[in-house]
Amino acid sequence: MAVELSHIVKVGIADMDIVESPGSIRTSGLGSCVGVVIYDPNKEIAGLAHVMLPDSSLSKGKTINLAKYADTAVPGLLNLLLEAGAYPGFLKAKIAGGAQMFQFSSGNELLRIGPRNVQAVKQQLERLKIPIMSEDTGGNSGRTIEFNPKLGIMNIRTVNKGVTDI
Amino acid sequence: MSFIHGITHLQLDILKEIGNIGAGNAATALSRLLNKKVDMKVPDVRTVSFDEMMEMAGGSETVVAIVFFRIEGEAPGSMFFLLPLKQASSFISQLTGEETSCEEQPVYSELASSALKELGNILAGSYLTALSDFTNLNIYPSIPYMAIDMAGAVISQGLIEISHAADYAIVINTALKEENGNDMNHINGQFYLIPDPDSFEIIFQSLGAIENGS
Predict the structure, then answer these.
(1) What's a Pfam family this protein contains (chain A) (predicted)?
(2) pLDDT in tens, B149-195
């Protein structure tokens, strides 16, 4: 049966989703964006958001895509997990991304978005009392991440620095 | 930004013409640089979601050489020049005589990477000069930034400005390729011009393609 096979849930840019064991969840091409995984190791459920911007108050649009901003994606992801039966007291987080893809000399705010995204995601996790177990942030490489809720491991692939597990 | 929803046929044609004029000028510049004939394809103007944008570039994880510029001045935006790795290496050897490997993580010498940036600079400069003449707007490129990495990781950085206002972008895509160059070692680069949301109105207004009071 197809349902017995492990499957991979793909999350696009400014998007979020959840997965239950034995599946895994993945997002590719994180640059200045941050991939936030929140998971319940007992229930083996994990959620992943591909966050693009730090703060929804900067939005100029009429409707807000919750997954796009750190301050709405992290609580949004928490809600999805709670609805799926995760237990709030067990939740943990792992984060990756927030790179600076271009070397630059001037203090262009546009190019500093990576570190600001990381900071904003951390603030939200702290506010919601979700501990960060490990992280791979900053630098100047793109990342593709895949999280397996059964193992609680985030696999990170980069072009220049190979593959690591955190 | 309700504005980029209600784009008219005339305005779409104007955006295509911008691609035509800009890339046409860039093709001439490239042709002089390489001393070879360079063709351009008919521009493609599309409204795409961010994920579709990555698909256009060959997939979020595909490793490419990208030169990125911010467009500054009266109608700001982002501009990318993308080259598949093989072709970036082939360009470098044509220009500098230096052979580089075209594996997934090529190590370019300083000379090689500055040659690639210069290519981007010349092409973006000629593209934007044409655009500036056509629209009568004062626009110019920032210094070039170069990265060789996953397309998704690099392009998303150029979408930051737009992402404040929308979940999709209007992309003016034009491809340049060497004439008779069907094999992979010939230059086959792509331009993505992504005006910031507020710039569309400015561009259309400067060309008289906007109805007053609409």
Answers:
(1) CheD
(2) 898 998 888 788 788 878 888 888 888 777 665 555 556 678 888 88
Asked if residue B169 is part of any domain, the answer here is: yes
More confident residue, A161 or B5: A161
Q: How far apart are CA A11 and CA B53, in angstroms?
A: 15
Q: Per residue in A34-70, is it b (16+ CB within 10 Å) or e — as a string?
A: bbbbbbbbebbbbbbbbbbbbebeebebeeebbbbbb
- CATH 3.30.1330.200 for domain A2-165, yes or no, is yes
Q: Out of A11, A18, A25, A33, which one is annotated catalytic?
A: A33
Pairing of strands B188-195, B168-178: antiparallel
Cα of B168 vs its chain's centroid, Å: 17
> Chain B, 20-49: which have a CB under 8 Å from a chain A CB?
49
**Angle subtended at Cα B182 by Cα B69 and Cα B57, rounded to the nearest 5 degrees:** 35
The pLDDT, as a whole number, for residue A49 is 96
pLDDT in tens, A68-118: 999 999 999 999 999 999 998 899 999 999 998 876 655 565 668 899 999
Gyration radius of chain A's alpha carbons: 15
Residue B1 lies in a domain: no
What phi, psi does B151 have (nearest 5°)?
Answer: -55, -45
B156 and A CB contact within 8 Å:
yes
Residue A139 confidence (pLDDT) above 50: yes
Q: How many CB atoms lie within 10 A of CB B184?
A: 11
The predicted pLDDT at position A151 comes to: 92
The question of whether A15 is a catalytic residue gets the answer no
Answer whether residue B141 is part of any domain: yes
Q: What is the CATH number of the domain that holds B137?
A: 3.40.1550.10
B135: tokens are 């629209």
